[in-house]
Write a structure and sequence with these properties.
With 267 residues, this protein is of the alpha/beta class. 43% of the residues lie in helices and 22% in strands. The chain has two domains: 127 residues, Periplasmic binding protein-like II (D-Maltodextrin-Binding Protein, domain 2), CATH 3.40.190; 86 residues, D-Maltodextrin-Binding Protein, domain 2 (3-Layer(aba) Sandwich). The longest helix is centred in the N-terminal third of the chain and has 31 residues.
Length: 267
């Protein structure tokens, strides 16, 4: 009888240990289940947008961020039921910032390059764009395609402009922002810059701070998109928002406000 009692005791203890272990594993699985991006953003109450100072898409006016992307982003955040926070990032580190959750979305006239599409969920393109060459106005008129090879360019690090410079075999220096590339050309530190057509249209020529500059030579044809983390359900939500805002006319109103209506794509 004693021997049978010991056997029964061992069996009972084994069953108890198995049940406890299973319970702990189930609890761990529940704790480790990842929230969706939308749930994560709603829970913290803020949509954090990674961007740079890039008129007409994102720029500061009277201490507040505005621009086509910024104003559309504000509507999307409101519809999501959260606040919006704009964070200036090093454009070359945008993928790292997104994956580290320092930001929730890259929304800044971002060209849909192969690198971007491989690293992010980007949703549907919303604007056309091109990379153009900026030079002093008195110089650009006599410049040929072949002559571009003789110039020293300024480009934004990690941008489509840098990619265009590399593809064309241009001599270039990579600096922090597209806006700074214009300073380089205006100061004569660089012969030319490669920037987005939409930025060139907004910041160069009569009535701007760069009346002495002009642009020409479309080096690429591109599209803009919004970048979310791989597998994020935020990308789908933004797609739905773009379609709604396009269908009800809101997108075209905002596009006209910032002079990008000709580049706006159907949603």
């Amino acid at each position: 009888m004693k021997k049978l009692g010991k056997i029964l005791f061992v069996v009972l203890m084994s069953l108890l240990l198995t049940c406890c272990s299973a319970g702990n594993n189930n609890s761990g699985n529940e704790d480790s289940a990842e929230k969706s991006d939308l749930d994560y953003i709603k829970e913290k109450g803020t949509l954090v947008v990674g961007m740079t100072d890039f008129a007409p898409m994102d720029y500061q006016e009277n201490g507040e961020w505005t621009g086509f992307d910024a104003e559309v982003g504000k509507i999307v955040a409101k519809d999501l039921g959260v606040d919006i926070e704009f964070v200036e990032i090093d454009w070359d580190n945008k993928i790292l910032e997104l994956d580290n959750k320092s930001i929730d979305v890259v929304w800044n006239g971002m060209t849909l390059t192969d690198e971007v599409k491989n690293a992010m969920d980007t949703g549907k393109p919303y604007c056309n764009n091109a990379q153009v060459v900026v030079m002093k106005k008195d110089r650009i008129g006599g410049m040929s395609d072949a002559g571009l090879k003789e110039l020293k360019f300024a480009v934004e690090a990690g941008s489509a402009g840098q990619e265009a410079a590399e593809d064309n075999g241009f001599d270039f220096v990579a600096i922090s922002t597209q806006a700074d590339t214009l300073l380089e050309v205006s100061a004569g530190t660089s012969d030319a810059a490669i920037i987005d057509l939409l930025m060139a249209g907004a910041m160069i020529g009569e009535g701007t701070s760069y009346a002495d500059l002009a642009y020409d030579f479309e080096l690429t044809q591109e599209e803009y998109g919004v970048g979310c983390r791989k597998g994020s359900d935020l990308a789908g939500f933004i797609n739905e928002e773009f379609k709604k805002l396009y269908d009800d006319g809101t997108l075209i109103v905002i596009a006209k406000q910032f002079g990008v209506q000709e580049s706006l794509l159907p949603q």
